[in-house]
Design brief:
The chain has about 625 residues and is an alpha+beta fold. The chain is about 25% helix and about 25% strand. The strands form six sheets. The chain has a six-stranded antiparallel sheet, covered by helices on one side.
Length: about 625
């Protein structure tokens, strides 16, 4: 009677039962033998002899395998005997894939070689997928050679993969422990094996040999045939004979570069060359006269000498194929000396004679290296924009920081505070011409109840005549300002109807500056006024002037200049005409009517004081004294 454990009970003390029939609790064997060879197998029973279903086929799988039979068109196939099991270490024993390759090794401390090519053989063992790298031994190489990488499974990446024979091919690079190997070819067995596995091989490459080793294989030159050239004869014949060339080095392509002049000396005694700088005053360079010291300069080097450290070691005849000679220098041609390109533009007389005697060259036309002066750019002045004076605006075209236009200082000193004033009609204006600066200003006297605000109408500025251009402007001058003349000021036309007596006095003192017609018209205009002035002076002579009247006259003049008031020239004639008997006295009613006609501000306190001073009695005014205050 077998004891089956109760299913579903918890694994607690007292709830589990032991099968007393089980006495063997050992593990089953996983090592088997077939055809005399041991191999690993999966266990079929567990501990205690319990059958394991995990490693066995199910009943459904057994039924499917037993019921399905392969069928052929021509009948049942002949049952082939089962093939014998052959392990990998037996099937691939002593079968090795062999690849030829190389790797490059840097040589940092050698002056003769910068890198080294080392040939290797890569071996792949099929029985356990291990690899090894072997380098053939070269006698007297001084390099540890032989086994570079011992036999082992080589890592392919950081994920734990290893190199497999599927990863190997010709013409590829593989990296083993940080060193890159180039596979160039393989042997016949390797080629046959890979092709049989369906791998398409790349074409083979040519093996690269070490350049330094190949150079060492070249036969050394044991004997050099001495030259038949007698250097002593050359020294005795050409001692102290030097060819002198004048050259230029153009370095303008570089930053802060320039054209610099040099002198090239070629010493005929020993075929040496020297380059000296040409210094000029205040050129800002240190006084180092020699650019290239006297030495033999190489023209052509031996091939494959690009890595020769010429800055450390001296150049010998073995590294140079050709040196610079006298035939390499010519006027009008370039020559390169130690990497610098010089243009020879002239030579001295001894050099010309030497080339003519030695080589028969007579063409020594010097080259002019002086650059022609840049073409002067014609400055075009833009049209006047109408802002400011024409001379001030023109200064903006001459410099970035405009300077004020030059003034005629002598003229300003001679005519300082000299102003010619005219009365012009548009409404009623006072036109002033400043003799110091040739500028015109226009002032409009304020008129009561006119509805027009008086004051400054035009500030001091130069007024061009109609028709003048901005290129050659023509401005108004004192000779253009006469009685009845029309002055066009920026589109507004003014007619001059009167002027100060100072204008006539200035014309009389400067007759050479004014035409005769202008002077005569001004005299005709002031003739009635002068006659009236003389009459007033005769009347006023009867009454001596008091000191108070003189002080008041000065105040009246300052008051009129401050308010830019210009009295009418016909005022004196009107007062004389009103004085029928010539007594010098006028009725107050008639006096105030004349003052109102000539716009005299009788309400002003200063004028009120003058009227009180000139009063005669209760109803009369002594007008000569009153008019004298206007005349100054």
């Amino acid at each position: 009677m077998s004891h089956q454990p109760v299913q579903g009970l918890p694994l607690l003390p007292g709830s589990s039962f032991r099968d007393p029939t089980k006495t063997a609790f050992h593990r089953s064997q996983t090592l088997g033998y077939r055809n005399g060879f041991a191999f690993k197998r999966l266990p079929t029973v567990g501990i205690g002899g319990t059958r394991l279903n995990v490693n066995q086929l199910s009943q459904a799988e057994l039924d499917e395998l037993s019921n399905k039979r392969p069928t052929l068109t021509y009948g049942e196939p002949r049952q082939a005997p089962p093939s014998a099991f052959i392990p990998a270490h037996v099937a691939f024993d002593k079968k090795v894939l062999k690849f030829d390759g190389y790797f490059q090794e840097d040589v940092p401390i050698s002056t003769e070689e910068h890198f080294r090519i080392r040939q290797v053989g890569l071996y792949y063992y099929l029985e356990d997928d291990s690899m090894s790298v072997m380098e053939p031994i070269v006698e007297n190489s001084g390099i540890p050679q032989g086994k570079l990488i011992k036999r082992q499974r080589l890592p392919k990446n950081d994920r734990g993969d290893h190199y497999h024979w599927k990863d190997l091919n010709r013409g590829i690079n593989i990296t083993i422990y940080g060193k890159t190997f180039r596979i160039v070819d393989c042997d016949a067995f390797t080629e046959t094996f890979l092709q049989s596995q369906g791998i398409e091989l790349n074409p083979p490459e040519k093996m690269i040999f070490d350049p330094y080793t190949e150079l060492r294989k070249m036969p050394l030159r044991m004997y050099v045939t001495p030259s038949d050239f007698d250097q002593l004869k050359q020294f005795l014949a050409f001692d102290k004979k030097v060819l002198r060339f004048y050259a230029m080095w153009d370095n303008t392509e570089e930053m802060f570069g320039e054209n610099r002049c040099f002198i090239i000396h070629y010493y005929l005694a020993d075929d040496t060359v020297e380059v000296r700088e040409v210094h000029e005053r205040n050129d800002g360079r240190d006084p180092f006269p020699v650019l290239i010291r006297r030495q033999r300069l190489p023209k052509k080097f031996v091939e494959n000498k690009g890595t020769f450290p010429s800055c450390v070691l001296e150049i010998s005849d073995q590294e140079v194929l050709e040196w610079f000679a006298a035939k390499d220098f010519a006027v009008g041609k370039f020559t390169t000396l130690l990497g610098r390109k010089f243009f020879i533009y002239d030579c001295d007389e001894f050099t010309r004679q030497f080339y003519q005697d030695k080589f028969g060259i007579t063409d020594f036309q010097p080259v002019d290296i002086k650059k022609p002066p840049p073409e002067e750019i014609k400055r075009e002045i833009p049209p006047y924009n109408g802002y400011g004076f024409l001379e001030d605006s023109l200064q903006n075209c001459f410099s970035l920081i405009p300077q004020p236009p030059r003034k005629n200082i002598i003229k300003m000193l001679e005519n300082d505070h000299k102003v010619l004033r005219y009365a012009a009609i548009l409404r009623r204006f006072v036109l002033s011409y400043c003799l110091a600066t040739d500028m015109i200003s226009i002032y409009e006297p304020p008129v009561r109840n006119s509805g027009i605000i008086g004051g400054k109408y035009l500030g001091r500025t130069k007024v061009p005549k109609p028709g003048s251009s901005t290129d050659n402007p023509v401005y108004y001058e004192p000779a253009d300002l006469t009685i009845g003349a029309m002055v066009e000021v920026f589109g507004h036309r003014f007619i001059i109807v009167d002027a100060d007596e100072h204008v006539l006095n200035y014309m009389e003192s400067n007759l050479d500056k004014f035409p005769a017609a202008v002077l005569q018209s001004m005299r005709d205009h002031f003739a009635p006024r002068l006659a009236a002035t003389e009459a007033i002076k005769k009347i006023a002579a009867t009454e001596p002037d008091t000191q108070e009247l003189g002080v008041l006259s000065e105040q009246i003049q300052e008051h009129m200049q401050r308010h830019n008031y210009l009295p009418d020239s016909n005022m004196q004639a009107a007062f004389l005409e009103q004085d029928k008997d010539g007594s010098g006295l006028i009725n107050k009613t008639e006096f105030f009517a004349l003052c109102d006609h000539f716009k005299v501000p009788v309400d002003d306190p200063v004028f009120q004081k003058l009227i009180n001073l000139c009063s005669h009695g209760d109803n009369q005014i002594r007008y000569p004294s009153f008019l004298k205050a206007f005349q100054g």
